[in-house]
Structure formats: structure tokens, C-alpha cells
Amino acid sequence: MIYIMLFCAFFKVGAFSFGGGYAMIPLIEKEIIEIHHWLPMKEFLDVIAISQMTPGPIAINSATFVGYKVGGFWGSVAATLGVTAPSFIIIMILALLILRYRNLPLLNAFFKGVRPAVIALIIQAAYSVAKSSFSSIKDFLVASGVFIGLYLFKINPLIVIALSAVIGIIIY
Questions:
Q1: Rounded to an integer, what distance in angstroms lies between the CA atom of residue 100 and that of residue 95?
Q2: pLDDT in tens, 105-125
Q3: How far, in Å, are 27, 52, 74, 92 from residue 88 at the CA level?
């Protein structure tokens, strides 16, 4: 029964939260703390902190951690499937519709309009992150070195991240 409850609670989070993982946190909090009383606030804050530190989307990481805490391994599976299922279903429906109607001029015009908007959103996110990340000339030099390594020398991003970590340990 707990697995079904976990799946349904996180399905609701996945289905009714828009704007990414951080936008999901209030709904996750409501489901976990207020409705189901699965965790106290202190543990929920720990889950959010761990979810931010680990690779992957915060909503999926949160679902996995809460599911494990509440229902063990199968609880984590149920919660993770619950939070990802709405997006999967929506993407599958959209993919079928796009494949079926891909030659419509209206759909092509839609995508031509959306592409520049997506690029603008990525640039805005990069600017926002850069603005808060560069507090010294060292930061700028490391970022410049990473850009040069990736763009000019085509170094594997994983190697660049590892080298950046080593450089960070050395210079900071």
C-alpha cells in the first residue's frame, strides 16, 4: 500500500509542477510533510540539500530519497517512477503528435519561433550563473581555461571537470 501511496503522491508532484525541480519543492513539501507526514521538516530539508548535491534533477533525487526513507528500495522505485511518469507520458504523446504532423507549416513555424527563445533562455541562465560565480579573477581564469579546453582543444567534458576540481584544490 505504501508503494502505491508514494507513486501517487509523486505522480501528483510530477503532473502539477511546472518550472523545473525548484518549482516542485513546495508541492513535494506539502505531500511529504503536511499530507502524508512521512518526514519531519528537518529531514525534508536534509533531503533537499542532498538532492541538490547529487547529480540529476532535484525532483527525481528527492523522490528517490524520500521513497527510500519511507519504503526502502521499492519505495524509492515507486516514488521515482511516480515523479517521472507524467513527463514521460506527455513527451510520448507530443512525440507522436510531432511525428504525425511534422510537415504542417504551422508546426514548423512554431519550432522556428521556439528555437531562438530556448537559446535566449539558455544564455540568460548562463549569464545568471556567471554573474554569481565570478567573485575573483581566479574564477574568470578557470572558466576561460575550461572554455578554451572545450571549444578549441575539444577536450572531453569529464576530463575538464576533473581538471577543474584539481585546479580548484590547488588555487583555492
A1: 8
A2: 998 898 899 888 888 878 887
A3: 19, 22, 20, 6
User: Are 97 and 60 a contacting pair, CB within 8 Å?
Assistant: no
Q: Read off the pLDDT of residues 125-140 as tens digits, 9 standing for 90 and up.
A: 778 777 777 888 998 8
Whose cell is 503528435? That residue is 97
* Residue 68 contacts residue 75 (beta carbons within 8 Å): yes
Q: What type of residue sits at position 133? A: S
Distance, CA of 24 to CA of 27 (rounded, Å): 5
The pLDDT value recorded for residue 1 is 93
Decide if 138 contacts 171 (C-beta within 8 A).
yes
Span 28-73, pLDDT tens digits: 889 999 999 999 998 988 888 888 888 888 889 999 999 999 999 9
